[in-house]
UniProtKB/TrEMBL annotation:
One protein family per Pfam: PALP
Enzyme nomenclature, EC number: 4.2.1.20
UniProt protein name: Tryptophan synthase beta chain
GO cellular-component term (any): cytoplasm
Modified residues (N6-(pyridoxal phosphate)lysine): 90
GO molecular function, one term: tryptophan synthase activity
The protein's enzyme class: lyase
Pathway(s) of this molecule: Amino-acid biosynthesis; L-tryptophan biosynthesis; L-tryptophan from chorismate: step 5/5
NCBIfam families assigned to the protein according to its UniProt record, in alphabetical order: trpB (TIGR00263)
């Protein structure tokens, strides 16, 4: 029976709590609160009610039949997280954390965001629950993501551009940490993926595991059995852990995470921490990182902003080491090709992040017989990516 992390947040040699002493109190408080409410029937009922009435869960599973027929191999199925309110899986997790914030009596929420998707999800739930919302974002990212900034402001959030360092995600993260230390009495820090110090990786995984739990009932209803393969794209790794976790104790189900190979692993311009990185410490936990020989974090690249992160959640590092999940990577070009095919053949515009997982599903399906099934977590819709796709296709909007 798989039972990780341990009491101190370790997934084997990964995870843990690598933070300054000033943050230890806040993390202890969060750990105790989560332990208290995690199995509380009233908390679970409220979480499920929000997922049903605000998010629209359960999300359906869809058989991509036309595409599967065209490929002529395994049958491909999509878990439709793109149909959630706000268009992706991120909302599942922010609801869980916001409910904890309410129970802790903390009316002020902070978060950091790179592409803006986690910022929008957080601003959404703060509006829903009447919580104050401050979003830290590198000033370079603020320039690049004008639409998401406007969304957050419409939802009532304050967006704080961060001018230090490279003015991107890691600088926004440092700023959010500083804010948290200073205002811990009334402030809850909502992290958007399965990374950060314990208890975040386990807590975010638990909130997202509603995805896989639904699949475990839905797949037998649709196909008579569990899938042979479960695939998901991996940035920080939250949509992947959400669909993988409930399947870990089904040894016949193969789990495959798909990272961003950018221009190709060999070019060095990628974001594939598990496929091409080495273990180290970043953002409060030990995990695989894209770093140089001196342990300096290197610049990453991906066409999808949501996969463009130099680390990965520590549980994925562990699943890789114990060989329970496999990890592979897909280039920008292959992801874009899968994006266009998915639009044309299935009538679904997927997020560019998701398109990485879809691209690998197609490659894999070709090698398998027709009675095998591949379940892909369709983590989000692609409306946010129109500009990027048009630019790469040399179309002027
Ligand atoms: C943010 C995002 C991702 C990447 O984050 P994970 O934590 O790896 O899931 C993937 N897909 C979509 C649609 C996203 O918005």
């Amino acid at each position: 029976m798989y039972d990780f992390p341990d009491q101190r947040g370790h997934f084997g040699p990964y995870g843990g709590v690598f933070v300054s002493e000033t943050l230890m109190y806040a993390l202890e408080e969060l750990k105790e609160t989560y332990a208290k409410f995690q199995h509380d029937p009233e908390f679970i009922a409220e979480f499920n009610s929000e997922l049903k009435h605000f998010v629209g869960r359960p999300s359906p599973i869809y058989h991509a039949k036309r595409w599967s027929d065209e490929i002529g191999g395994a049958q491909i199925y999509f878990k439709r997280e793109d149909l959630n309110h706000t268009g992706a899986h991120k909302i599942n997790n922010v609801i869980g954390q916001a409910l904890l914030a309410k129970r802790m009596g903390k009316p002020r929420i902070i978060a950091e965001t790179g592409a803006g998707q986690h910022g929008v999800a957080t601003a959404t739930i703060c509006a829903r629950f009447g919580l104050e919302c401050i979003i830290y974002m590198g000033s370079v990212d603020v320039e690049r993501q004008a639409q998401n900034i406007y969304r957050m402001r419409l939802l009532g959030a304050t967006v704080v551009p961060v001018e230090s360092g490279s003015k991107t995600l890691k600088d926004a993260l440092n700023e959010a940490m500083r804010d948290w230390v200073t205002n811990v009495e009334n402030t809850f820090y909502i992290i958007g993926t399965v990374a950060g110090p314990h208890p975040y990786p386990a807590m975010v995984r638990d909130f997202q595991s509603v995805i896989g739990t639904e699949c475990i009932t839905q797949m037998p209803e649709m196909t008579g059995r569990q899938p042979d393969y479960v695939l998901a794209c991996v940035g920080g790794g939250s949509n992947a852990m959400g669909i993988f976790y409930p399947y870990i104790n089904y040894p016949d189900v193969k789990l495959i995470g798909v990272e961003a190979a950018g221009d190709g692993i060999a070019t060095g311009r990628h974001a594939a921490a598990l496929c091409a990185g080495t273990p180290g410490v970043l953002h409060g936990n030990r995990t695989y990182l894209i770093q140089d020989a001196n342990g300096q974090i290197m610049e990453t690249h991906s066409v999808s902003a949501g996969l463009d992160y130099p680390g990965v959640g520590p549980e994925h590092a562990w699943l890789k080491d114990i060989n329970r999940a496999q990890y592979t990577a897909v280039t920008d070009d292959d992801a874009l090709e899968a994006f266009h095919n998915c639009c044309r053949i299935e009538g679904i515009i997927p997020a560019l992040e998701t398109s990485h997982a879809i691209a690998y599903a197609c490659q894999l399906a070709k090698t398998l017989p027709k009675d095998q099934t591949i379940l892909v977590n369709l983590s989000g819709r692609g409306d946010k990516d129109m500009h990027t796709v048009a630019q790469h296709t040399k179309v002027k909007l």
